[in-house]
Design goal:
Length: about 150
């Protein structure tokens, strides 16, 4: 599956980028008879179902073309990465400015929660409720998750 995943990644990214969105991740699973391909895309402000459908259609057209290197049965799913996906890259943090996040630093040294207000030069800036801004280098983050704020 790793070989298929690598080939799909190289094949899909240029098509996805034509839509002006970020490629986030790709999962390939299933069986050798029918591969299940999950493509995760996102953009600042969140990606719409309509845009995911258009990307899915474009990827299907390329995969089903006679010159496509991919043969056999497959199921393709294109979606957002979901609210429960960890934030890892600078791009992940940029897409989520304005949201509440929880950050755990390396070695579990500190845990910070607050509104993600900026991403500058490989650092994030959080503002805890009623507190002062905190800067955390992305390289020092062990885990960062979006926090759902229930009203």
């Amino acid at each position: 599956m790793q070989k298929i995943k690598h080939e799909l990644h190289a094949f899909f990214v240029p098509i996805i980028e034509q839509f002006g969105v970020d490629f986030v991740d790709l999962e390939a699973g299933g069986s050798t008879r029918k591969v299940v391909i999950k493509v995760f895309v996102d953009e600042i402000g969140g990606i719409s179902i309509d845009k995911c459908a258009r990307i899915s259609k474009a990827l299907h057209e390329v995969m089903d073309a006679p010159e496509s290197p991919f043969t056999g049965d497959y199921r393709l799913e294109v979606s957002s990465p979901g609210i429960d996906r960890p934030l890892k890259s600078e791009r992940d943090f940029l897409r989520n400015v304005g949201r509440q996040v929880e950050v755990i630093t390396l070695n579990d040294e500190h845990t910070f929660s607050g509104e993600l207000v900026a991403v500058v030069e490989q650092n994030i800036e959080l503002v805890p409720e009623g507190g002062k801004p905190i800067k955390v280098p992305i390289a020092e983050i062990k885990r960062a998750m979006i926090q759902i704020k229930w009203s």
